[in-house]
Input
Amino acid sequence: MISEDLLEILCCPETHQPVTVADSDLVDQLNKLIGSGNLKNRDGKSVEEKLDGALIREDRQILFPVRKNIPVMMIPESIPFPESTD
Output
């Protein structure tokens, strides 16, 4: 779980928009896409490691993976928000 204090200071490294924690249903949907090989990151590479959580950029266009309770805030590792989860 990401602490509220950390969440307050985190932002998208590209746009500086705030991020919020994705709900567990969305994370489950993302993990299903990962399991079927249908989720790619911004570098165009398939996401292979399941997510423990995700942070959603304010505009809901980009997700940042959370692995082992650590947010991965690198642009190439970010994931375009899949249309099928809206």
In short: The first helix runs from residue 4 to 9. The chain has one domain: 4-85.
